[in-house]
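For practice. Supply one:
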Amino acid sequence: MLIRRRDLPEPPSPSDDDPVLEHALTDLAWYERARDRARRWHWFTELSALLTGASTVVAAGIQAPPAVTATLAGTAVFIGGFRQIFNHTERYVLAAEAWSRLRLAIRRYRLIPEAERDEVSRQRLLEEVEAVDATELQGWAASRRGVAPTPIPGGTNTGSQLPPS
């Protein structure tokens, strides 16, 4: 199901004296763009696969010229391979998980009054940004290798874990 949250207010821009928050917001924007792009590709490939698959059956059923039926079938096979190679679904999930974790970390950080944000709170935010980046990269690499990701020391692993065999 497509979920859109357009009613959220725009976050205030970071002050120039908080480079950690600025870094976190830059990463958040990148994950948002990656998530949205992967979601659009996911929907496009899924709908294209459904359309070409159904059209192939209809073309065969109405005894369309063989060239039309073969073209539709070939397109359906191509889209299936495209989905396997680029796996926009997995990319969408990884980017959405990273975006969600980062957004929550930034929100927690912003709940601390600006005057009370010390090095410990900045360090905690920076560690969460780095953990999100590492987890997302690990999940992407594991999906490329076809294996389950392993937990990152000191970070929370949000990647899907396969049970031990």
Notes: The first helix runs from residue 19 to 61. The helical segments are 19-61, 66-86, 88-111, 119-145. DSSP finds four helices and no strands in the chain.
